[in-house]
Amino acid sequence: MDLLFVRPYYGVNINSDMAGDLGIVDYTNQITPDLSILYSASLAKSKGANVTVIDGNAERLLPKRIIERISGVGKSWIILKGTAPTIQLDLEFARILKELFPGSKIILAGHIVKILRPWILEHAKYVDDPIEIAMEDYVYRLVFGKEHDVQIDEFPAPDYGLMPLHLYQDAGKTNSAYMWTSRGCKLSCVYCPYIAYYSRSMEERDLDKVMDDIQAVLEQGVDYIQFRDPYFTANKQRVIDFCNKILERGYQFKWYCETRIDSLNKELLDLMKASGNVMIGFGVESASIDTLKKYKRPTYNLEKAKSMISYMTEQGIESLGFFMIGFPGETFLSMKDTYQLARYLSLTYAQFNVWTPYPDTPNWAEIENPPSITPELFIQFENRVTVNPVKNLTREVLDFTAKQFGFMYNEAQHGLEYAYRAFRHQNIREERGRRHADILFKQGITELQELSTQLVM
Length: 457
What we know:
single chain; 457 residues; alpha/beta; Rossmann fold; TIM Barrel; 2 domains; 6-stranded parallel sheet; 5-stranded parallel sheet; 16 helices; 15 strands; globular
């Protein structure tokens, strides 16, 4: 079986497995692998399939170049990764792939495909299978002939030999790798797209296998690993064992994880630091306890959270807090409270995003007269949908506020020069990205159509 995995690039950097596999536009230097593609391709290769991965996003290959690359490899199955910010172009790309390679099965994967599957089945017949389960589960069933989803313990070590590892960057670092030690999340936040896609069940990978995974990537020159588990310290004893195994094996690398701040304590932080942890990210979301309770986000003790963050700073572990503004009923005063909460916690970094409802999350029911669920619901090259649930504040106001909060926080925490450089860097990359996307949007489809004639001949 020939399997070709394709992650497209349209002139804008998309980290395609983030936001619960919906993908996000990222105008920073962060270029990440798609973990669904990585584990799916590794699974297929372990079963003897002929596997090729074309990571157009990492290699900056526009569709015309991707098609030229495809023409030289086996292509009985082409699995195309779609994202919410690019779904309209993804569908057009899938159509052209079917025209060019009519003997290939065109599979469209990703969380966005699950949301749009009824529309795709009716309007995009050129897609042979718009899959509504995670790509790694689909590939496991396809290659291994199973009728159930893959368990995380059944994954082989992630085979970065299939991917352009040297191109993956995180905050300016090269030699970075990403992996899972668990899948799923036991929390119940109703706005979370990750839970909507992967469900609330949580499964953990055997720690000896995790150590083998780490060794495999370290042997390829990696010195920084991001563990993409949504709730890394859900099981404290497991994290203790994890850190001790790293120390016992003598592994030397830096690592990052995401978790809940109230699942940490000083002893655990000491051990995490000793084993190489340099940064922890966690969702704080909103200063409004009522909002957190409404959306079933577990609350926490504010003083204990501040104490843990202070201790992290003392120990040299950076903290990254995720905040959201723009919940239904939000006001300027409540948004300011959320900003002030970030300042009070004194995190190393704070990221402010605008709350976005998605059709397969419970809070979609709050939307009055919701629009039809079509590709046009998802705004091109933006991390949002056309719905703005805050009646008294426009999306432009919310976007501006989130960006200004980021600038203000950086200035307060790191100084005006740092804040200005970060703000200017983001704006330059955003303008450049939109300019590249505009070029593709106006010219790229015509080029592809011309190319299709040449290749078929």
